[in-house]
Design brief:
Elements: E1 3-5, E2 9-11, E3 23-25, H1 27-38, E4 42-45, E5 51-54, E6 63-65, E7 70-72, H2 75-106, H3 108-123, H4 132-141, H5 145-169
Antiparallel strand pairs: 1-2, 1-3, 4-5, 6-7
Helix pairs in contact: 3-5, 4-5
Length: 170
């Protein structure tokens, strides 16, 4: 069996079709090309029609230099590609931030009410009637009302800090 290449592989077994202008290749080269393709390389014909392995095209803006078999990009296309990539990254960040916000804001009113109740109880020097937000939290956490109040305020401050950091990242 003899292998040939012209934008694909052909063999002459049993009178198999071999297109005009196909280049004869060795069995070793055939295996090397297939192994390279399996590892992510592309098989193309060089200027003389011989098959060679090249790295995949980095982007649609890159063009193959057939003299060097390297992908190249013009400064104009590079500028456009960088702007497109930057816009996509910004959109990804905004989308991820929106997902985070939707989770946080789902319970935001409850967090705010719990925080307000904790601030009121603390400003009353932890005396008097304690809000159900605090007592329920304290009971589930196995804490006294004062410790629960302080923990609620610490968590509220942490949440505000995280929200501010998220806003700064956008």
């Amino acid at each position: 069996m003899t292998m040939y290449y012209k934008n694909g592989f052909y063999d002459d077994t049993d009178g198999g079709f071999v297109p005009e202008g196909a280049v004869k290749i060795s069995e070793d080269l055939y295996r090397t090309l297939l192994d390279g393709q399996a590892q992510g390389k592309q098989i193309i014909a060089d200027k003389t029609g011989n098959p060679v392995l090249i790295a995949p095209q980095p982007s649609a803006a890159h063009e193959l230099n057939l003299d060097t078999l390297q992908w190249e990009i013009s400064p104009e296309k590079m500028t456009a590609l960088l702007a497109e990539t930057q816009n996509q990254l910004i959109a990804n960040i905004d989308s991820h931030a929106a997902t985070i916000y939707s989770t946080w804001t789902r319970f935001e009113s409850e967090y705010r009410e719990r925080q307000a109740a904790a601030e009121a109880f603390k400003s009353a020097n932890y005396q008097g009637e304690c809000s159900r937000y605090i007592t329920d939290f304290a009971k589930r956490a196995g804490l006294d009302n004062k410790t629960a109040t302080n923990l609620i305020l610490t968590q509220a401050a942490g949440l505000e800090k995280l929200q501010m950091e998220l806003a700064n990242q956008r």
